Amino acid sequence: MTFRDHLQDAALDNLAQEQRVADGLTTDVLGSMAQQIAALRQEVARQNAALSTLTQLLMEKGVVNSAELKSRFDQAMASAQAQANVTACTRCRKQVDKRQTQITSSGAMCVACYQAMQADDE
Ligand SMILES: [Zn+2]
User: Residue 85 Cα, ligand 1 centroid: separation in angstroms?
Assistant: First the structure.
């Protein structure tokens, strides 16, 4: 085996070792994510049980009826959805619709700030 072959073998060994380390990290990250998902599923199930129990109790006691409950729930969901579609511009901090932002290296930016930043760059 020539010296050059030794060098190539060593380089291949190093690459193989780096790949094993990367595979190990990927496995660790995936394992951690799977644990987090399992914990979130458990939390959703717990909250669902609590909400169902509370809803059932309120209806049994005649505190609310199902139409009233549905109406309130729909309002709350619409409000939550509207809130989820809004973000703060990283430059001017104004609350803007997420669909009308540009993603930059510093985060979501409103159109006015994005255009101003591009004009500054020129
Ligand atoms: Zn802005």
Answer: 16
